[in-house]
Amino acid sequence: MVSIPPPLHRRAGIGNKRWGSPFGDAKRFEGRRTVPTLFRFVAILALLGGLVFGGMVALVVFVQPVPREIVETVPPSKLQPK
Q1: pLDDT tens per residue, range 12-48
Q2: CB of 52 closer than 8 Å to CB of 45
């Protein structure tokens, strides 16, 4: 006798504990309000912007530039008014 394996999705939708959503049972979220997608996007952008800004502040505070002299010759033709 050959045994047939069960289908991957026993029932449709979120909340299938065996093969469903990796976020758990949908019944836990009934009656709750979820965070809107746009708000999540803006919050992630703000977090990334804060990290970039913090990195720039850290560069300003901790990195000291080395001063050096630069000499550049200017051709006389550039000094003559037209």
Answers
A1: 555 545 555 555 555 665 666 777 889 999 999 999 9
A2: no
CB 6 within 8 A of CB 18: no
- Classified as helix, coil or strand, 55 is helix
Evaluate whether 15 touches 25 at the Cβ level (below 8 Å): yes
Find how far residue 34's CA is from the centre of its chain. 20
As a whole number of angstroms, the distance between CA 4 and CA 12 comes to 20
Mark residue 23 as left, alpha or beta (left: phi above 0; alpha: psi -120 to 50; beta: remaining): alpha
DSSP 14: T
Rounded to an integer, what distance in angstroms lies between the CA atom of residue 54 and that of residue 62? 12
